[in-house]
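Quick start: what a row looks like.
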Amino acid sequence: MIALVRQLRPVAGLFVSGSRAMLLIGVVLSAVTAVCGVALLGLSGWFITATGIAGLSAATALAFDVFVPSAGIRFLALARTAARYGERLTTHEATLAVLADLRERLFRGWARRGAARELLKRPARLLFRLTLDIDALDSLYLRVFVPLFGACAVAVVTGVVLGLMQPLVGLCAAGFLILAGLGLPVVAAMAARRHARRRAHGLEVLRSRVIDLVSGQSEWIMAGQLAARREGLTAADGYLAACDDVLNRIEVRTGAGFMVAGALLLAAALVAMAWLAEQGIIDAPLAALGLLVALAAIEPFAALRRGAIEFGRTLVAVQRIAPRLSPAVQTAAADVPPAGVAARLDGVTVRHPGAERPALGAVSLTIAEGERIAIVGPSGAGKSTLLGLLAGEVAPQEGRVSRRAATLLTQRTELFQDSLRDNLRLADPQADDARLMEVLEAAGLREDVEALPQGLDTRLGEGGHGLSGGQARRLAFARLLLRPTTLWLLDEPTEGLDGATARDVLTRLWARAAGRTVVVATHIRREAEAADRLIIMEGGIVTAIVTRGDAGFDAALAALRPD
């Protein structure tokens, strides 16, 4: 139980700290709805029975007051309807608000240093966490907390009503409701937990395989693996169907258990009411009221069975997203280098998890402000790791890093299914259209954008579909210009572009880099030609640093890949 509370604490705390008033109102309205439903059935039974008895003689018929109980029935019916509407409105509104906040915090948690590199290994993971896992958490409040509070309120009211007739009867009824009404969902949750976890994993596998099949269909056909991929998809679907079958069976059995519990409670109430009426303690209308209250009392507890079945899935979701929940992005504060220095590394060592050797080994380096540096070396030499270290994306295990605020331009051009304007404003949300057109001009993309019918309002497809590779790279360069940082970190900025486009992009980049420090990781000669120094790396170690004018500078430059 302690471990369960510890697992639920991060998410439960978010619910409590969110729309607390709205959540509380929703719980109260749920209890009012349940109590009004039980009271409505009980009062209706009393009224029908009392009316029938009063009609046996003219004297009692004339003396019987039909207005007060009928008004009470109308009030309870209207109150139940209004409370149900208010409960659905408030609980769903509050839940959606909390889940939206949860998605934001989870996204920020994945934005921590190093987390993006984890996502590259399984790019669909963030999507699943933001959709499947977050959606699973709505049952924690809507299908567990809300019906639980309402059912307990009904148990208390039932115990009080029957206790006013005979205390022992009320105590036994309330105790049976608590034991059976909560015991059955607990047993169901324990029985379904393993299968719910399997279903959650199975659903993630199914979605992953569907994405792989659709996105890589051409490649699977060329490799002759399409049939095998289809079989894998069918197997995942069958696994998921088997889990659903088991969970449905558990839910049906739990429902049958509530039916048995309701029948037992009704039978016991019938015996108790008959005995109390025979003893003259209560009259027939009160006996009918007590009987119908007992009949309706088990129904609110039955609403817990769905939440119990999904509780295992909810726990899986909590366990998977809780480590990434954070009220804000926590980034390690980098030391500020002395005046005139853009970045400094002192004996820095970086080890990636599971790697046999360090990605960077005892690297010491000083980069002056305004300097242009090219980091060169074969693939796997540690160039990108060094850039990530300077950007604050990679944490060193040993040594010390001091740097200015930096902007990292990676090899990939990350564009989203949105307008050109909003893709640019990712770098500066406050930039107006004049500023956007200015950086587009600097990137050589203004004429292309102005030629579009919708200009900056032109919507891009997924991944920037609608732009050529050169246009997408220019757009990324324009976004770089919007960032007010003095340290630019560029990872093979023109990789994949034709020679003419690449040289035009580089010419514009160096023209706008005046007064800034630029560090380029590359193995292409054209990207290193404007460098003041070449840092040569191999195996995570800086093997040489040559300055323009040194004897080895031209030789190192000539060793790089030509256009």
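That is the whole record. The beta strands are 341-350, 360-368, 372-376, 398-403, 406-409, 487-491, 517-522, 533-538, 541-547. DSSP finds 22 helices and nine strands in the chain.
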